[in-house]
Amino acid sequence: MSDRSGHFAGDDPFAIARSWLAEAEGAEPNDPNAIALATVDADGLPNVRMVLLKEVEADAFVFYTNYESRKAQEIAQSGKAAFVMHWKSLRRQVRVRGLVEKEDGPLADAYYESRSLKSRLGAWASHQSQPLSSRAALMAEVARVTARHGTNPPRPPFWGGFRIRPLEIEFWADGAFRLHDRFRWYRSDLAQDWIIDRLNP
Which of 53, 77, 89, 113 could in theory staple to 33 by disulfide, Cβ–Cβ 3.0 to 4.6 A? Predict the structure, then answer.
């Protein structure tokens, strides 16, 4: 499109997303890779929570979590998810909707190994999204798994990644007088080429 230039230039939405994220890393005070991840339960009721995006691949977005968490269970049931990444410092956001698959192989192993020891042990200790009697009970579980796994815990079998393969990506930039710039890449299935639209604010 002739007027898609500047921040929106290029035909690869993943390259644009990486570029915007790189800009945010120099501007946001905390967690520039934070995303609000939305899933839907079996009754169609939405859930949303903040997670950290860990990779923008050539054709997908990757994050990690406990596979027994509510988000993971809802993803397993629907196979779909959406997220928004918003940077107040840049006055920009990226919205993504798509299909989800597990990342449960070497990439997940490598990311788990890159985490601090306490975070790796914490992944073992937390029964994510389940009721917890007290903070003391959680810390006791951390002590138990530390005694069991020591300083080199393996990646838990219930912990790994998810890869979101988008059917839709929207880039939004703040405009004067609420006349924002919005461009949407979309396709009906993953094998198709992207269609690009400018959207009204």
Answer: 53
CATH architecture observed for domain 6-115+159-198: Roll (2.30)
CA separation for the pair 161, 155 (Å, rounded): 11
Instruction: Specify whether 92 is catalytic.
Output: no
Q: Give Cα 201 distance to the centre of its chain.
A: 25
Instruction: State the catalytic residue, choosing from 92, 120, 178, 187.
Output: 178
Check the annotation: does 119 bind a ligand.
yes
* Closest residue by Cα to residue 174 from 20, 1, 11, 52: 20
For residue 30 the two structure tokens come to: 């905390």
Amino acid at 113: E
| Intervals of the chain under pLDDT 70 | 1-2
For the purposes of burial, counting CB atoms within 10 Å of the CB of 67, is it exposed (0-12), middle (13-18) or buried (19 or more)?
A: buried
pTM assigned to the model: 0.93
Tell me if 51 is assigned to a ligand binding site.
yes
- Domain-wise residue ranges, the chain: 6-115+159-198
Q: Among 75, 101, 103, which Cα is nearest to 159's?
A: 103
Closest CA to 161 of 48, 78, 66: 66
Residue 188 marked as a ligand binder = no
Q: According to the model, what pLDDT value does residue 107 have? A: 95
**Contact status, residue 38 vs residue 82, Cβ threshold 8 Å:** yes
